[in-house]
Every structure is written in structure tokens, then in C-alpha cells.
Specification:
Elements lengths: L32 H30 L3 H11 L1 H4 L5 E3 L2 E3 L1 H11 L8 H24 L7 H25 L3 E2 L1 H20 L5 H21 L15 E7 L13 H15 L3 E5 L3 H10 L3 E4 L17 E4 L3 E10 L11 E3 L5 E3 L5 E9 L5 E8 L5 H21 L4 E7 L7 H7 L3 E2 L24 E5 L4 E6 L12 E6 L1
Parallel strand pairs: 4-5, 12-13
Antiparallel strand pairs: 1-2, 1-3, 4-17, 5-7, 6-7, 8-11, 9-10, 11-12, 13-15, 14-15, 16-17
Helix pairs in contact: 2-7, 5-6, 6-7, 6-8, 7-8, 9-10, 11-12
């Protein structure tokens, strides 16, 4: 309600509810009613005309011709092209789906992001934001300066995408198929701006083509290419590798699919050429592939059991060079109160509650005879529990008991133990093992061995170890992932004298 009288102009309180003016007494409801109705009708007609004109602009700008419709649809296609691998950054493929899955599965830890990965994420975010700006602006293409604005917005969008893509490449990454598809979409948008315009700005079209071509060529030539990796030096002693392969895990969206990683693992082992390999989280598919492509190795692996999915029924597989060793005995025991049978460790906590390990855990081992010398070597491989300190320590105790039994049966035997301990050197299980065997880790240059595909910062302490009864050894982390991740762990290697 107007807060003054239409006749005398006197001020009226917004809470005044009577029909007549308190100053002049005029009927506020009916005073000059016809004139006011005419004014309202005229204003309504003006508003309707403005709305009709606005709708006509929207229709002419967005669906005026079939080419306008094609352009409108094209504006949304970067959301699809970004689902393809856009970049190789942070040693993995980066796509919109992969990034969303990484946040869901690994959280949002920017401290772990490399520069090329950061630029790749920024590129995806700005593609979405700036594409939205381009869409909104395009709805006013039919206005006087609509065409110029369309080119400006789209060129800014393309330039920002191109600049961030160049930064990805300069920082050590590379562009992938999704980048080229997205750039082609941007070029198609710019061409359609030109075709659908009433006045054809040829200069802007030439600038658009030149910009897209320049971005594509620069990124193509400066992007980091996978390098051929040199073989490792011949070991001075017995070369041992421990590697949690994460065989059941990974996703094709970021280039960590299991089958692709199996091939990377095989290539890595061919370059390292170890005498002994201890694997954790090995599954049947990997065992078959590795055995077929590394025929120079004999292997032994037993499923731990207790897994619903056969693909995820993990094994602590061990491999030994057939030309160097012959197996005398192979055996697996469960890290539970019934080590001879498939089982899981259980215990009663301080509150009297019955608890259990996170899953079945095992230790597999082989008694090997060195072909050249006839010396005996016991090669044990394990993976301690990930959720129960009690289960970890109990497993370590069973392993030390088994080592003692092996030494009693073979007094001069050498011992090698590999494994993922799921704890650092501060853990009680580690300290128990370290009381009977030597840890080969180089404490002066140690680093984290679990890295969660590079999505999380995991400090600088390893959880994977190689122990030996020998006092002479060298140590190295197998952290070369130039060709992509082999696992969510780095392998470790020791040359034992």
C-alpha cells in the first residue's frame, strides 16, 4: 500500500487499516479508481511487451535456426568430454569422473597434489564455470553486440583452458584425448558463433582458429612423454623385492586399472630382475598373468579365504628364480589361533567384547636350496592385519615362532622375510620381528611406501619391509612411476650379501 493519501498527500502509517484518509477523509480504496486501473493496464501492457521481446531474443539466440540448436547442445558437451582422460598428471589420468571418485574414495587432501595435478583440477573447474558463463551470454546473441560478446566469452574460455593445459605440461604432465576433444568443441562453438551471426566478424574467426591451433600444438610438443627406463645394475648378492600389488583394486578412470598395472609390474620386475619376489594383495588373475610372462620364476601362492569376492581373495604370493633356487618345501599358515586351517584371529578386548581381525591373514613360505652352493634359505612373506593391533602382534609372534622352528630344523639356514606390516617401525609387531631379524630399510633415506595412488600425503615412514638374518645388505624404494602407478604402494628392494 502507498504510504500517503492520493488526494491530500498526507502520510499514512503502514499499519493504518481504515478505509478513509485520517487527514482529509477521502475513501482511499475508490478514489480515482478508474484512472488507477487504466495506469495499471498500461503498465501491464508494457511489462507484457518487454517480456515478449525478451522471449523473442532468447528464441532467436538459442533456437532461432537448426544451427543455433546445434550450438546450444554443443555448449553442454564439455561435461561429456571431461569424462574422458583430459590429462596425465600426478602420474595418473585425470578426468571429471576420476576426480569425483578420488574425492569420494580418498578425501580432499591438497597437500598430496602435485603442481600438474593441481592445474589439471583447476582446468576442469574452470571449464565448468566458464562454460556456464558462455551459455548464459549466448542467450543474448540476438542483441546489438551479442556476437562480439559471444566471441569474447568463448575466446576467454578457450584461452584459460589452454593456459592451464600448458601449465599442466610445463609442470610435468601431458594432455590426453579428452583435451583434444574439448578443444575441438570450443573451436566448433566459435565457428558456429560466426555462422549464426548477422554480421560475420572474420577477424575474430581467424583469431579463434589460431588460438585453438596454437594451444593444441604447444601442448602436443611440450607434454611429458613416458621415458624408456633403464635396467637395474646386476645385484652383488641375492636381490629381494617386496611389493604390495593391490591387485584387486584400481580403476580405469585414472589409469590404475588392475590389468594395466599387472603389465607395469611385470615390466618393472624384468628390469629389476630379483631372485626373490614377495607379493601382497595378489589375486588369481595377477598370478596367472605374472606366471605366464615371467616364466623364469617358480611361484607358490595360497588364498587367505574369508572373502566374498573371488577376485579379491588375496594371496601372499612368493616367486623365486628357477635357475637360482629349487624349492624343498612350501607351506602357508594362518595368523590365528588355528594356523593350520583357514581362519581369522579373534580376541576379547578390555571391555569383555569379542573382537576379530579385519580379515583372514596368512604367511606363506618356501624352504629353498641355492642351486650353485646347496645352501638353504627360508623365504617368508606376510601381510599383517590392517585394523587390529592385537592381530598384528599375534601374527608377528606366530611368524617369529615359525622362524625359530625353521632354524631348529635347518641350523645354518638363511632367513628372508618380506611383508606389508600395516604399521611403521614404531609398532609392536615390527619391533618383535626386528628383535630376531635385521631390517634392511635405509633409515637415513627412508620414505613412505604406501601412497594411496598419490591422492593422500602419507608421511615419510614405510610400512613395507624386508628383513634378513644377514648383516650385509643395500636397500632401495622402487618409486619410479613415470609410466604410471604399479600399485598404491611402492615396492622395496634389498640386495642381501
Amino acid at each position: 500500500m502507498n504510504n500517503q493519501c492520493p488526494k491530500c498527500g498526507g502520510k499514512i502509517s503502514p499499519f493504518y487499516l481504515r478505509q478513509n484518509c485520517p487527514h482529509c477523509g477521502v475513501d482511499l480504496l475508490y478514489y480515482q479508481l478508474e484512472e488507477r486501473l487504466e495506469q495499471d493496464a498500461a503498465e501491464s501492457a508494457r511489462q507484457e511487451a518487454r517480456l515478449k521481446h525478451f522471449v523473442e531474443i532468447l528464441k532467436a539466440s538459442s533456437v532461432g535456426t537448426p544451427l543455433h540448436i546445434v550450438r546450444l547442445v554443443l555448449f553442454f558437451t564439455p561435461l561429456l568430454s571431461m569424462c574422458l582422460p583430459l590429462y596425465r598428471a600426478g602420474h595418473k589420468n585425470v578426468s571429471l569422473i576420476g576426480f569425483i571418485m578420488s574425492i569420494v574414495n580418498h578425501g580432499f587432501d591438497m597437500s598430496a597434489w602435485s603442481r600438474d595435478y593441481l592445474f589439471a583440477v583447476l582446468a576442469m573447474v574452470l571449464v565448468i564455470v566458464l562454460s556456464l558463463a558462455v551459455i548464459i551470454n549466448s542467450l543474448f546473441s540476438a542483441t546489438a553486440h551479442g556476437t562480439v560478446r559471444n566471441f569474447i566469452f568463448s575466446l576467454v574460455n578457450t584461452a584459460v583452458f589452454g593456459a592451464l593445459s600448458v601449465l599442466v605440461c610445463v609442470s610435468g604432465g601431458a594432455v590426453k584425448i579428452g583435451f583434444y576433444v574439448t578443444l575441438a568443441i570450443y573451436l566448433a562453438e566459435l565457428v558456429l558463433h560466426f555462422i549464426t551471426a548477422a554480421k560475420k566478424p572474420k577477424g575474430l574467426l581467424m583469431l579463434s582458429v589460431a588460438l585453438c591451433a596454437a594451444v593444441a600444438l604447444v601442448c602436443m610438443f611440450i607434454g611429458t612423454k613416458p621415458q624408456a627406463q633403464e635396467p637395474f645394475a646386476v645385484p652383488a648378492g641375492i636381490r629381494v623385492v617386496s611389493f604390495n600389488t593391490a591387485a584387486p583394486w584400481g580403476t580405469p578412470f585414472d589409469g590404475t586399472a588392475s590389468s594395466a598395472r599387472a603389465e607395469r609390474f611385470i615390466g618393472y620386475m624384468q628390469r629389476v630382475s630379483p631372485a626373490l619376489i614377495g607379493t601382497q594383495e595378489l589375486n588369481s588373475a595377477w598370478l596367472e598373468t605374472v606366471s605366464a610372462e615371467l616364466p623364469e620364476y617358480e611361484s607358490y601362492a595360497v588364498k587367505r579365504g574369508g572373502d566374498d569376492d573371488e577376485n579379491r581373495s588375496e594371496m601372499n604370493g612368493i616367486f623365486w628364480r628357477k635357475d637360482l633356487f629349487t624349492a624343498e618345501k612350501t607351506e602357508t599358515f594362518w595368523l590365528s589361533q588355528t594356523p593350520e586351517t583357514e581362519s581369522r584371529f579373534t580376541y576379547i578386548d578390555e571391555n569383555g567384547e569379542e573382537c576379530e581381525a579385519g580379515c583372514n591373514r596368512i604367511c606363506s613360505y618356501a624352504i629353498l636350496t641355492e642351486n650353485a652352493t646347496g645352501r638353504k634359505l627360508a623365504f617368508l612373506n606376510t601381510h599383517l592385519d590392517n585394523s587390529s593391533e592385537e592381530a598384528m602382534l599375534f601374527g608377528a609372534q606366530l611368524i617369529t615362532d615359525k622362524i625359530a622352528a625353521i632354524k631348529a630344523a635347518y641350523p645354518e639356514i638363511a632367513i628372508v622375510l618380506t611383508g606389508d606390516f600395516n604399521q611403521t617401525e614404531d609398532g609392536a609387531a615390527y619391533q618383535l620381528i626386528a628383535s630376531v631379524l635385521n631390517d634392511t630399510t635405509d633409515k637415513a633415506a627412508q620414505q613412505a611406501t604406501w601412497h594411496e595412488w598419490g591422492y593422500s600425503y602419507t608421511g615419510d615412514k614405510p610400512i613395507d619391509f624386508i628383513f634378513t638374518s644377514s648383516g650385509q645388505f643395500t636397500y632401495q624404494v622402487l618409486d619410479n612411476i613415470d609410466n604410471g602407478y604399479v600399485s598404491d604402494h611402492y615396492g622395496i628392494m634389498a640386495d642381501i650379501g
